[in-house]
Write a structure and sequence with these properties.
about 290 residues, alpha/beta, globular
Length: about 290
């Protein structure tokens, strides 16, 4: 390699933001999972939930290529009360799983209305969404509380889908990188590397959730590359390249393929579009 290019690569490496490009040029081969997770939020009755899952299953059976891809995982996150019913419908599919939308960090006790991780695991879930902006905003969940939830999930061999993202005024004030760094440092970067490698990170710009606004593919890629650089800074380059980073925030059947074409976007945490069978299937197809 010419000296000029070595100097350029060293400079990029020191900046960290583009460390993954350096590794790709060295032809290191990384395999991280593609993940499409549907967050149903507080929607559907039980009969409606069963109908939706059955229709998704029918579509997947008609597309065997989607259920036989080793590095693709499809995740459904219905409300707590439907987890076991949904699990029963999908458990025969090798790459389809259910997720809880939330958890409580204590094992058991006098916490009326809460649901513990071991309860969630016992009904068949594999994933838990933690730190969604709606939990942070509506229920005032702070960094320490979210860190406890992550630890509780990992203790029971559950996979956290940890959500991070900035609000509109933080983006407009050019504070978005600082916000993301703080969210990672305060809630995830206390983990050892073995535990951290079990986490999936979902970047959801809060200003794009349910608003119809979407980060451009370039904005999504910029932030995902930055997140990967922070992981490399903390845990090393190999770990950073093997962590799945998902995009959320008005991701839909029309924009999914372009978003997922970005080199550091490994899938999506899908909201409203996950409640529409054909849209959800189209989004899944867009990631492969």
């Amino acid at each position: 390699m010419p000296l000029k290019w070595k100097i350029i690569l060293i400079n990029l490496f020191e900046k960290r933001i583009f460390v993954h490009y350096y590794l790709l040029l060295l032809k290191k081969d990384f395999m991280r999972k593609k993940i499409i997770a549907g967050n149903w939020k507080m929607n559907k009755t039980l009969p409606e939930a069963i109908l939706l899952v059955n229709e998704i299953c029918q579509e997947l059976k008609a597309r065997p290529e989607l259920i036989n891809i080793k590095d693709l995982e499809i995740v459904l996150a219905p409300p707590f009360v439907y987890l076991n019913e949904c699990y029963k419908l999908i458990h025969e599919f090798p790459n389809v799983f259910v997720a809880s939308q939330n958890c409580y960090p204590e094992e058991s006790g006098a916490f009326t209305g809460e649901v513990s991780v071991n309860m969630i695991k016992s009904v068949g879930a594999k994933y838990i969404i933690i730190g969604h902006s709606e939990r942070r905003s509506y229920f005032k969940e702070d960094y320490l509380f979210l860190a406890r939830k992550v630890l509780a999930a990992l203790k029971h061999d559950m996979k956290p889908i940890f959500c991070i993202g900035e609000v509109l005024n933080e983006r407009e004030a050019s504070q978005h990188f600082e916000v993301i760094r703080t969210q990672l440092q305060e809630s995830l970067f206390q983990l050892n590397v073995v535990d951290f490698e079990q986490v999936i990170i979902a970047y959801e710009p809060v200003w794009a959730i349910g608003t119809g606004r979407t980060a451009s593919p370039q904005q999504a890629q910029e932030m995902h590359a930055y997140i990967r650089s922070l992981i490399a800074e903390k845990y090393g380059d190999e770990t950073s390249q093997n962590i799945s980073l998902l995009y959320g925030g008005s991701c839909n059947a029309q924009n999914a393929r372009e978003l997922f074409s970005m080199p550091d976007v490994d899938g999506g945490l899908i909201g409203g579009a996950s409640l529409k069978v054909q849209d959800f299937i189209t989004i899944i197809e867009s990631v492969i």
